Structures are given as structure tokens and as C-alpha cells.
Amino acid sequence: MNKKIGLFWLRDDFRFTKNDGLIEATSNHDQVVVFYLYKQDTYKDQEAQKWWLSKSLLNFQKRLNNLNITLEVVETNSFKIFFDKLLKKNDFAIYWNKVYEPDFLKFDEYLLHALKNKNIQHKRFKGNALNEIDEIKKSDDTPFKVFTPYWRTAEKYYSEKIPPKEKIIKKCKKKINYNKNCIEPKKILPKKNWFNNFEKIWFPDEQIALKELQNFIKERITDYSEGRNFPNIVGTSKLSPFIKFGQLHVETIWNECIKKKSKTLGTSKFLAEIGWREFNHSLINNFPHMLKNNYSKKFDKFPWEKNSKFLNFWKKGLTGYPIVDAGMRELYSTGWMHNRVRMIVGSFLVKHLLIDWKDGEKYFRNCLLDYSPASNVAGWQWVAGCGADAAPYFRIFNPILQGEKFDKEGEYVKKWVPELKNLSKKFIHKPWECNDEKFKLGIDYPAPIVKHEEARVKALNAFKQI
Length: 466
Prior knowledge:
Blueprint: E1 5-10, H1 20-28, E2 32-38, H2 40-43, H3 47-65, E3 70-75, H4 79-86, E4 92-97, H5 102-117, E5 122-125, H6 147-159, E6 182-183, H7 198-201, H8 206-219, H9 224-227, H10 240-244, H11 250-259, H12 265-286, H13 308-316, H14 322-334, H15 339-352, H16 357-367, H17 373-384, H18 399-406, H19 411-416, H20 452-464
Parallel strand pairs: 1-2, 1-4, 2-3, 4-5
Antiparallel strand pairs: 3-6
């Protein structure tokens, strides 16, 4: 055993299963300290995630305590300043897992170099992905820009790997503290009591995540291909926040799905969603300009409109289009939104209102528990038509037809837009056609802020300009 202290830098890996860096630290050292670096700057636009992070730290801390491992939360403005100070000591070895975002990977290079220069024992491990980013390339060694051939290659590559032997975290001899001036996880909670409702819905913890995964595989995965389109039923896995924070490793999901011997269409569709996540990470690392700008440069000339009034109606779920409003209210209330509805509300913002996708991306970033730069930016650019392998811009979702097709009885709308609960299914997705005395459009529920047909024509004309 190494006499030095083993440090594990915790990032998006709140788990015991397949946590290579933490497992290695406990295998090599009698005393291990896990530390999390909390940068206020990072989270200033991610209010909902402050709640998930705070709870994840608390729950993980409890589990680590049982193994005599301390979890310390250190507030810092800069990773570099923190590590430059840390590297003045030489009483530790350090371990961590990768996070597949350009800034993190770039900082890793700096840190690996600095640790090597100081001759400090260190090791960096694969993060929460099936394949490393540079493992999946086209035959000419360039990155894929289209999902289907990417996933075909990635899935085959991963399934042919020899699985490593599962190792487990060891209990340490005794607990020690290492960093000074640590903060309590509670300090991270958002100031507003907005998250009170989250407490009733989510429990950010690995054991819960594993249970949810089993439930999903047992009860819903077979029908996933169809079921995932209907927001009025629980047809999706709702595992995305657990994956983002690493309570679940995607390899665990893969293994559990593959154990289900009959590879149904549902299983393939579900694993393809993991494939999209991998593809999006590959995109942002190979084309990092897309994190801040259009992947497709021709969209730089698109005539977006600045309209803070409409943007506000959209955020509050007061557009007058029931399926759009239901989605936006679900998001604010639960920190999550059904995937089909994410496409509908996204399309409405960029095509009906001609508001830049970046405004939508920013609002989602603040409200989504599962926010990750790769998925959020790629998803928004897919909807806006300016991303890699994106939906063509001229394919404009009709929010009325989308509602009638995917929420036939209006159950989803009635749950989130209760002021429409007495409308019949004939009018639930177009309340402006209802002429019931008891229902007053513009008083009980807003009139549509734009007319679908007019907005569609305007969007197509705007598209012609580029």
C-alpha cells in the first residue's frame, strides 16, 4: 500500500460502479480523500442543476463515510489556481476520470504535464462513455458528421471490446481531512425555493438510478420505440439526469440492456439514444465552435428576431399553443421535459417566433436537471436546422397536429395546463375554435401569440435569405 494519501477528483462520477479513478485510489492507498471543486461561475446559468449537485454530494458523502472516505467540497474560481497550490505539496497521489468536454480535456493536458514535471503519482481514466472520442473515426480518419454511420461503427467497435474485470471500491483504514476551507453541499442550493417540487420527484443517488434502470428494462423498454413518443404516458427511462452526473455509467446501461437476451426494437432504439449522446460528444470535441455558434456557418446570416415579449411568453408557457405551453410548464415544475415535446417547443421558438436557438439553449441550460453542453447544444441546433445531421429548417412542426397525434386525448395538456381541463378533445389542441360560453379565450387562456400558417410562411421566407 502506498503511504501517501490518495486523492480522487470527483466530477461527473457520483457512483461506486465503474468508477475507475476512485477504485484505483482505494486499491492503492490506506487513506483516500474525494474532493469536488465547485465553481460558482459554471453554475450561475444552471440553477436547476445546483439542486441536483447539492443533493448528489450529500448522498454520495453518506455512502463514502461508510467506507472511511472523506468527501470535501472546495469552492474555487479557477481549477488552475487550486491545482497550482496543491502541487506545492508532495504527500499525495491523484486520480480522476475524464469529462468529454473541450475545456475539461484541455485542462487535463495542463494538469498531466504539471504532475509529471513535479514527479507526482497520478492516473487519469476513461469517463462516462462507451468509447473514447478518438476511437470512432471514418476510414479516412476524419470525424463522422452523420449519426447513423457513426453509431453503426461505434456500436460494433464497443461490442467487440473485451470487457474489463469488474473491480470494487475498498474500505479505507481511517478517515482523514485534507483540504482547508471546505463548504457544505447545502451551500450550493439555488436561492429560490423553486426546487421544492423537485424533492417530490427525484432522488439523486446511484442506488435509486440502478433501481430505475431495472424498472425501465423490465416494464417499458420493449415498447420504448413507440412509447417514447407519447408525453401523456411514462414511456421513456427518465435516466438522463443520473447519466449526466454519472450516478449511472453508460456501460452499466449497455450491459443491463444486453443481458435482456431478446434484442427488441425497443432496446435498439434505447441504446441508440446512448449513441446520440456519444455522437454529440464527438461533435463538440471535433467542432468546438458549435458550443457557442452555429455548426453550419451559413446560418450566421439568418435573420433572427429579437422579441423579449414572445420569448417570455414561451418561457412561461403562455403562447396559446397548448402542447407548447404544457412542455414549458413541465420543464419549470420538474426540471425535465419529455423528448418529443422538447422538439416541439424548440421548433416553435426558432420557427414560429424566429427567435435564435441560443436563447432557447440558455433557458434549457438553466432549467434542465439533465443539462449537458453536448446534448443541449446539439439538440437545439438539430431543431434549428443549423447542426450536424440536423432536421431541415423547412420541416416546420405544426404544434396543433403534433398535439393531436401524440396527445390524442389531451391528457398531457390537461395535466400541465389545468385551465383547459374542461375542454373536449376536439378543442384541446386548438382552444381558439371552442365557442363554449364557459370558456373565454384571452381570459381563461391566452389567444395564440402568432398564427401557425402566417408564422410558417414567414419562417420559410427567412430561410430563403440564407
